[in-house]
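Translate structure to sequence.
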């Protein structure tokens, strides 16, 4: 067996409302704020388990993360996702264009006292060990149901899809892509992040698309 790379205990976090990074998913980011430019530079220069590592997490309040200069920062959701900088480019106007590839979800143990412009947390990976393993494929009925609901959802949204690409995509790639690009609200994105496994995430995704069409009954999924 190949031993997975160790995960860092202390993680710099980028609070970003509406953003969703999942294990093995890819999130492109356009970095321009000074605090997050500093965070990316520090992550690139870090050694050991922290090298190129950034955590993506949603703030519970609307807006950006806040800093020591603009009042109290908003509280964060309990669960985020660790990402490794897999692509990096600096622009002539001082921005950084990066891509994060998801590694594992984490739960915040505690937020560290601020010694940098950006926020850092102590991360707990307990309960997320399967994030670093290939997931079990979806049951055939679940996959077919997801594709059926997707067709109706896209029609209702006035969107189209390359159905050859959809039907040929593996289960995880399809679920991860749809969860990332569909215009769900932040609480719904968080529900997708916190789903136990691929089957649960596919079921949550199917339910959210159904509710968006106005064809589902009951309440939307909520987070405690």
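Result:
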């Amino acid at each position: 067996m190949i031993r997975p790379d160790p995960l860092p205990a202390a993680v710099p976090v980028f609070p970003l409302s509406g953003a969703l990074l999942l294990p093995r998913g890819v999130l492109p980011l356009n970095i321009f704020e000074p605090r997050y430019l500093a965070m990316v530079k520090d992550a690139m220069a870090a050694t050991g388990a922290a090298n190129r590592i950034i955590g993506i997490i949603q703030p519970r309040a609307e807006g950006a993360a806040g800093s020591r200069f603009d009042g109290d920062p908003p509280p964060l959701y309990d669960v985020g996702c660790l990402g490794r900088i897999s692509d990096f480019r600096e622009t002539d106007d001082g921005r950084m264009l990066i891509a994060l590839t998801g590694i594992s979800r984490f739960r915040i143990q505690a937020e560290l006292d601020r010694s940098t412009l950006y926020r850092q947390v102590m991360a707990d990976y307990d309960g997320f060990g399967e994030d670093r393993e290939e997931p079990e494929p979806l049951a055939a009925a679940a996959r077919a149901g997801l594709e059926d609901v997707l067709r109706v959802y896209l029609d209702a949204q006035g969107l189209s899809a390359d159905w050859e690409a959809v039907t040929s995509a593996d289960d995880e790639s399809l679920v991860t892509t749809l969860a990332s690009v569909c215009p769900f609200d932040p609480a719904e994105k968080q529900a997708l992040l916190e789903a136990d496994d691929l089957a649960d995430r596919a079921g949550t995704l199917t339910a959210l698309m159904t509710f968006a069409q106005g064809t589902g009954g009951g309440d939307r999924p909520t987070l405690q």
